[in-house]
């Protein structure tokens, strides 16, 4: 039996197969999901991991045992599952462990219309009910319909961003043996794009590199291919293809903050005066640029459930995170790396400049990137940092500790899942950013010694 207490996280389910997550557990979660949500029908999709089809089938048995009908979409990206939930008006479950290593798997759950299910919106109840149902068998009575949704997904995205009139572009895509290898060919079909495909073979053992574009070493093959082929840009997707990282024509990374600002400007051109969401560790340039283009920036905590909840509350048209998650009102307030990539292709292909010049105006500050420190006494480390910076800037504690001064800021916050403190720092001057970063890390390091 799996370990329900361990695998149910704040936003999803994730654990090692079969030690923490096995088929009886998935079956119990399927039954509990139907009971808690009251769903009469459910849509299910899964990624390319070896364990995904069997876990999905087990979940389906559990859902059917509670008389729910199931639309089985088969292989898909997480944003394809959101498309399915939104377009079919059904609650849904995606079997994936995103960028985690091959031995992991998990579930991302949503209500009808791709509304996320998190710890405070039903996930805890599903966990508790599943614990009661493990090992309880019932005859499946609901029906199963297999439905290929890939073409509908691709058509929907192409209807949101028109790429038919862009200039021809050379694009390298690294799918990392993940679900981008399944979705990119369908979305790019017929577009004026010369595609170079890296690691499009679906392989949940990730034989080439981890499907996590946030780690620089996983981008090296893509960067080399962009330079060697003279491509206009490169795109890297994570395992379930809901995140997208962008590489310019020089082989340099484009920060997700710059992509957030770029897409925000495009969405504001479509929806003047609209609200744009950004989390508190995106660049200061994001709210500045949003205001300059007549939009209303709203700052939130880190995490997709906070972003999606604030988007729904405010009616925001777009939201971006430092982690390369991008959220769209026109996509049921859900995140889609593919849709963000299409906005980048449109912005580049509608004019003649190279991508490095296009994004230059959206990159105003020098950022540290996220620096993680293992700290056993996180509260003491935060206390010492507060003390050291007292009187030197404005403090806020929306999510961890943020200290802001003239042209600089940093945020230090605890990981939800590990004994880590995560530091992000930014300044208009690179030497100032470096000094702030190193000072905070020195204080944190003394606590961990």
Automatic annotation (TrEMBL):
It holds the Pfam family PGM_PMM_I. Keywords: Isomerase, Magnesium, Metal-binding, Phosphoprotein. Residues 370-441 form the Alpha-D-phosphohexomutase C-terminal domain. Transmembrane segments: none annotated. CDD domains: PMM_PGM (cd03089). GO terms for biological process: carbohydrate metabolic process. Residues 6-130, 152-251, 259-365 form the Alpha-D-phosphohexomutase alpha/beta/alpha domain. This is Phosphomannomutase. SUPFAM superfamilies: Phosphoglucomutase, C-terminal domain, Phosphoglucomutase, first 3 domains. Its EC number is 5.4.2.8. NCBIfam families: PRK09542.1. The keyword ATP-binding does not apply. Belongs to the phosphohexose mutase family. One of its GO terms (molecular function) is metal ion binding. PANTHER family: PHOSPHOMANNOMUTASE (PTHR43771). InterPro entries: A-D-PHexomutase_a/b/a-I (IPR005844), A-D-PHexomutase_a/b/a-I/II/III (IPR016055), A-D-PHexomutase_a/b/a-II (IPR005845), A-D-PHexomutase_a/b/a-III (IPR005846), A-D-PHexomutase_C (IPR005843), A-D-PHexomutase_C_sf (IPR036900), Alpha-D-phosphohexomutase_SF (IPR005841). Its cofactor is Mg(2+).
């Amino acid at each position: 039996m799996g370990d329900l207490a361990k695998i149910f996280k704040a936003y999803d389910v994730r654990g090692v197969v079969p030690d923490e997550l096995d088929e009886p557990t998935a079956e119990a979660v399927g039954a509990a999901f139907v009971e808690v949500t009251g769903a009469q029908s459910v849509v299910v999709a899964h990624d390319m991991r070896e364990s995904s089809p069997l876990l999905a089938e087990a979940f389906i048995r559990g859902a059917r045992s509670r008389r729910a009908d199931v639309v089985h979409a088969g292989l898909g990206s997480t944003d394809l599952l959101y498309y399915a939930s939104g377009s079919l008006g059904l609650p849904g479950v995606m079997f994936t462990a995103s960028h985690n290593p091959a031995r992991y798997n998990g579930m991302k759950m949503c209500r009808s219309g791709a509304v996320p299910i998190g710890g405070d919106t039903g996930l805890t109840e599903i966990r508790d009910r599943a614990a009661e149902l493990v090992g309880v068998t019932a005859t499946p009575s609901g029906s199963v319909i297999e439905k290929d949704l890939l073409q509908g997904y691709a058509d929907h995205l192409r209807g949101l961003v028109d790429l038919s009139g862009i200039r021809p572009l050379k694009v390298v895509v690294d799918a990392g043996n993940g679900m981008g290898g399944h979705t990119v060919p369908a979305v790019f079909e017929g577009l004026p794009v010369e595609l170079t495909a890296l690691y499009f073979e679906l392989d949940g053992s990730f034989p080439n590199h981890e499907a996590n574009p946030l780690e620089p070493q996983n981008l090296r093959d893509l960067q080399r291919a962009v330079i060697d082929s003279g491509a206009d840009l490169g795109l890297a997707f994570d395992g379930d293809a809901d995140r997208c990282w962008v590489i310019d024509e020089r082989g340099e990374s484009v920060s997700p903050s710059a992509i957030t600002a770029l897409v925000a400007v495009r969405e504001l051109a479509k929806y003047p005066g609209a609200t744009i969401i950004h989390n508190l560790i995106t660049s200061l340039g994001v709210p500045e640029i949003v205001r300059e283009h007549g939009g209303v920036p709203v700052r939130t905590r880190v995490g997709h459930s906070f972003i999606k909840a604030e988007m729904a509350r405010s009616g925001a048209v777009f939201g971006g995170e430092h982690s390369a998650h991008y959220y769209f009102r026109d996509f049921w307030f859900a995140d889609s790396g593919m849709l963000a990539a299409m906005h980048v292709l449109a912005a580049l292909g509608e004019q003649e400049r190279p991508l490095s010049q296009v994004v230059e105006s959206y990159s105003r500050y020098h950022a540290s990137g996220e620096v993680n420190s293992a700290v056993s006494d996180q509260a003491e480390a935060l206390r010492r940092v507060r003390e050291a910076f007292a009187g030197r800037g404005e403090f806020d504690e929306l999510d961890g500790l943020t200290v802001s001064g003239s042209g600089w800021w940093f945020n230090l916050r605890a990981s939800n899942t590990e004994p880590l403190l995560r530091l992000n720092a930014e300044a208009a001057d690179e030497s100032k950013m470096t000094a702030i970063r190193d000072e905070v890390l020195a204080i944190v390091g003394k606590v961990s010694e």
